[in-house]
Design goal:
The protein is of the alpha/beta class. The chain is about 25% helix and about 25% strand. It is globular, with a radius of gyration of 21 Å. The relative contact order is 0.12.
Length: about 300
């Protein structure tokens, strides 16, 4: 029997069969996928093969994982030398960010975008809480919008509270399976409540003393959007987005605005830091490539080298 994984709690899974039946499942033995080692053998979005028990009170058994079209991962929160697959078989990833209460750093956004580029998954940036932005935040949003749109990304400004900007978001979600990610407190649960009929996810605000979001989602979970013929995967609030398996030499390939200039560098192995004849540094100096994005690249490059930032 074939099924689709809707929720993973580490050892137990919620799956939906092809005929729409929702079952609890566990993994039979140790599942191995060629070329992939992760802390979680089965991820939300996986298509699996199952054996069902005679008694409905017993869990069904996941015996095999169908070949993944793609997946996106991050550094495991428990072990920085391992990775954790966030979700599989995605059409796009959506990062919900905020410029206030809490503020999403550019470094976090850029790491998320690098992960999407590395796994060939298109990314969309949605800035929420427009209803509380004043001139300072709106000016910053315009800077961010210009910077990321020039790199080829879709950038939207919404207020889930006021229900503004949501129509365009729903158009982007239609007929796709989308990953929804972001810090705790940016409005992911409120967003799902707005787009999923009859959904009433628990929502919480931002901690007053820390300015950081309060976790409301513990495990990744997928929801059907029947009116849009789509699915959305909600992820736990992520404080940091640790990249894995990205060599320093390849990092610039995952910045689209840098990638188009790589062939113009004097050296094929240019890291765009101290090398002469670097087309990327020249573009930064001329103003045709964002200095902020270049600084972010350098910081990520340093972190891959074992430095913290």
């Amino acid at each position: 029997m074939r099924a689709l994984v809707y929720k993973s709690t580490g050892s137990w899974y919620t799956v939906k069969t092809e005929d729409g039946k929702v079952l609890n499942a566990r993994v039979k033995g140790i599942l191995k996928i060629d070329g992939i080692t992760s802390t979680n053998p089965v991820a939300v979005g996986d298509r699996v093969f199952m054996d069902t028990e005679d008694s409905e009170e017993k869990a069904s058994m996941i015996t095999e994982i169908d070949k993944r079209r793609n997946y996106i991962n991050r550094q495991s929160p428990a072990n920085k030398y391992q990775h954790h697959i966030i979700a599989a078989n995605l059409d796009q990833s959506v990062l919900m960010a905020t410029l206030k209460e809490p503020k999403t750093s550019q470094g976090f956004i850029d790491r998320f975008l690098v992960a999407g580029e590395a796994f060939h998954i298109p990314s969309i940036l949605i800035f929420n809480k427009a209803d509380i932005y004043r001139k300072k935040e709106m000016d910053l949003f315009e800077e961010r919008r210009k910077m990321y749109e020039s790199a080829g990304y879709k950038v939207l400004l919404v207020s889930i509270k006021d229900k503004t900007g949501m129509e365009e978001v729903e158009e982007l979600l239609a007929n796709k399976t989308s990953l929804l990610s972001g810090h705790s407190g940016v409005g992911k649960s409120s967003f799902i409540n707005a787009v999923v009929p009859d959904m009433d996810l628990k929502t919480q605000g931002v901690s007053g003393w820390s300015g950081k979001g309060i976790h409301t989602t513990t495990f990744a979970e997928m929801y059907d959007l029947p009116l849009l013929q789509a699915r959305i995967i909600d992820t736990p609030g992520i404080r940091e987005f640790g990249l894995v398996d990205i060599p320093r030499q390849e990092l610039s390939h995952y910045f689209p605005e840098m990638r188009i200039r790589l062939n113009d560098c004097q050296f094929n192995n240019c890291l765009h830091v101290n090398e002469p004849g670097c087309a990327v540094k020249k573009a930064v100096e001329e103003g045709s490539l964002s200095k902020d994005r270049y600084v972010s690249y350098c910081m990520i490059l340093d972190s891959i080298n074992g430095k913290n930032w």
